[in-house]
Amino acid sequence: MRVEEIGIPGTFLIEPDHISDSRGVFYESLRTDVLERSAGIAFQPRQINYSVSRRHTLRGIHSVSVPPGQAKFVTCVRGALRDIVVDLRVGSPTFGRHQVNELDAASGRSVYVPEGVGHGFLALTDDACICYVVSTTYVPGTQIDINPLDPDLDLPWECAGTPLISDKDAQAPTLAEALAAGTLSDFAAV
Predict the structure, then answer these.
(1) Positions of the site: Participates in a stacking interaction with the thymidine ring of dTDP-4-oxo-6-deoxyglucose (predicted)?
(2) 13 within a domain of the structure (yes/no)
(3) Beta strand 117-123 pairing with 12-15
């Protein structure tokens, strides 16, 4: 398993080692001991979520306020998706910057998203399924949503046609509006 920091401090791409034979493939998707040894992350899963989406479905950008905060270990378990993380931590050297990764079930690649960093994805296949292993349980009222089509963020969704997006995400504030409202986490606090 390879763990590599990617563009935004504390965000990592995890590439599993595959063992293949005539029956198929085996790989370890999550090893908390490897994350801790390789990246200094003491990740303790508290909840596991799945989201199934049609092709061209756009979900995000989502985060959780600190406290309670929520780190995510994100894996595509069926199909493929364009995964984007955005640094929402005020005072971070990469505040407002994003990182794009292609995740698919065949590769088993995962992304570790630290507290205060936003996450979203575009389903590239029908019936795409994403798994979120998260560090805290759901706490109503702590969600931070940023409009994934915020023109100032200019995220490279590269969707052919109009994406399918929830009203909640379409009406979410821009990054500038969330910053002005004081809803974002401070880099030093996470």
Answers:
(1) 138
(2) no
(3) unpaired
pLDDT of residue 161: 87
Chain-centre distance for alpha carbon 10 = 12
| The CA-based dihedral angle spanning residues 58, 170, 73, 99, taken in that order and rounded to the nearest 10 degrees | 80
- pLDDT tens profile 112-136: 999 999 999 999 999 999 999 999 9
Number of domains comprising the chain: 1
The span from the CA of 85 to the CA of 92, in Å, is 14
| Residue 40, in any domain of the structure | no
Q: What is the CATH number of the domain that holds 106?
A: 2.60.120.10
pTM for the model: 0.96
What residues are labeled active site?
Answer: 62, 132
